[in-house]
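[agent] plan:
  1. take the single chain provided in the ticket
  2. run structure prediction with default settings
  3. attach structure tokens to the ticket
  4. add a short note for the reviewer (M.T.)
[agent] executing step 1
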Amino acid sequence: MELQVIQKRIYQIRGQKIRLDFDLAELYEVETRILNQAVKRKIDLFPKDFMFRLERPELEDMSSQIVMTYPRKRPKSSLPLAFTEHGVIMLANVLRSKKAKLTSVAIVRAFVALKQYTANYKKLAGKLEELEKHYNKQFQDIYHAINYLIQKRKPEDLHKYRRQIGFK
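[agent] step 2 finished; step 3 output follows
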């Protein structure tokens, strides 16, 4: 399974990175209703930090930001389940197929890669902020030096330093 394909369908909701049930069903090569039935049978394995149901405004917000063709595959009354990284791992145990286990490994790798990218981005942002402070200080020093030189030589004093043009 290609890591980039998996990463494209990791969304951020409620401050958590999640996968939606219909995306996971597609990856596991099962119908969404079968995946949801398996979850319902073992609901005690999915606490709120592993899985939660999206609310209508969240789904509408996602649908407006991401082109989704999935709502027609889902009954209008049913809102999708959102699985965190831990929920995806637990889902592989619930589904028990070899495909589910292999897919879960790939999904967990995608979550880990995303975390590493985020950590590297934060480090880079911190370094850029330090550089900005350093260069702002240097440019501020240059600005003050130029200002000092301008104030030292006022425009009316500049004619003393100019060479006379013309015949002597």
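[agent] step 4 note for reviewer: The beta strands are 11-13, 16-20, 51-53, 81-83.
[agent] ticket updated
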